[in-house]
Amino acid sequence: MNPRDRLIAVLEKREPDWVPIVFQSVLSSRVSNELMKMLGQGIGSGPTSFAGGLTYQTVKEFSDKIVKENPSSWREEYEEIANIIARASINVSLYTRLGIDGFYYPPTSGRVRVLGKDRIVNEFGSISKFGDANGELIQWYDGGYLKTSEDRDRWELPLPGPDRLRAFKDALKACGDNVYPIGFIVGIFELTWESMGFTEFARNLRTNPDFIRRVYGEHAKFDEELAKLFIDAGAEVLAIGDDIAYKNHLMVSPKMWAEFVQPSVKRIVNSIHKRGGLVFMHSDGYVTPLLDLVAKTGYDGVQSLEPLAGVNLAEVKEKFGARLGLIGGIDTSQLLPFGTERDVEKSVRDAIKAAGRGGGYAIGPCTEIHWKCKAENVLALIKYARKYGEYPLKL
User: Fold this and answer.
1) What percent of the chain has pLDDT over 70?
2) Which of 1, 13, 368, 380 gives 20 to 30 Å between its CA and that of 138?
3) Cis link prior to 47 (omega < 30° from 0)?
4) What whole-number distance in Å separates Cα of residue 196 and Cα of residue 313?
5) Cβ atoms 32, 52 nearer than 8 A
6) Predicted confidence (pLDDT) per residue in 210-267, tens digit
7) Are residues 275 and 191 in the same domain?
8) Domain residue limits at 295
9) Is 197 in the same domain as 164?
């Protein structure tokens, strides 16, 4: 079997030849360069884009210089550079060499707008702030830009187009049978609350639910069209990333999700199935109370299964394994940053034992490989997944 066949087997709840390994992405340029060196490939430019090699200090010095030299027009110049970085293609070379089966590949993003030297707003109204993490350039969510219906009326809504999938089509060819790029779409719950901020989202949900329905509908229309474009570009497996949970509890009640989110998501999932694709949902956190609704929505699988958030992999396999392919289960907050190789081996073995029987399980980190993770632990995860993941399982 090749990586594509293994992933499809998992989402069809069948048994492949090996338990496949699925990564979201490697965010850290330090980790990616260490991995490339360990694999005998030398230092690369980072797996996410050429921006993966940028340091926080480099960007800060550059932005300060632009502001100083162009006090009246720095924003326009800075915005052009920010858009070049935001639209950079993923460098797939690391993923093709790691020995994994799948990784997330998002579409090319739309235009971003610069709000300040360290803040941008994306095409959906989500504000990000840049900062420093052990010398690396990182960004995090910093609020919503479209807090009211009037704000949204003045906003130019993004449109999907085939140009967003050109890099993905190139990646499909470049990856060949080495690894499978999974088309990645941001889900409507996440897009909606991030566009206005969670406080405003909660307020609008109570006082102006029709506005929330409108925003969900606009985002669902975008996602459905983007999914079609992914499949037209050759994608057969898609992931919809829609974080719905914190550690230990949900961000929304199942009742609210069923009333406001599920109908639109069901249309997106059905449209993917009608075009011959398979799709799974990604969410960090304690998702277990929502998995029955996730299955009823029509998703073929679910990814993350974060152990330190309270997700019990064996319990999820027992309750939902016949309805959902399961992906993930390996901790990235403590295990991969601070654990030993033996710790990683035990976690991999336990995860395969809990969820691998009968197929329908792909192992992998529950979130991205971030700047705190040890490169040697990432390779240990892959090593022991191959050691213990061959079918028939011998655990």
Assistant:
1) 96
2) 380
3) no
4) 34
5) yes
6) 999 999 999 999 999 999 999 999 999 999 999 999 998 999 999 999 999 999 999 9
7) yes
8) 3-49+90-110+158-388
9) yes
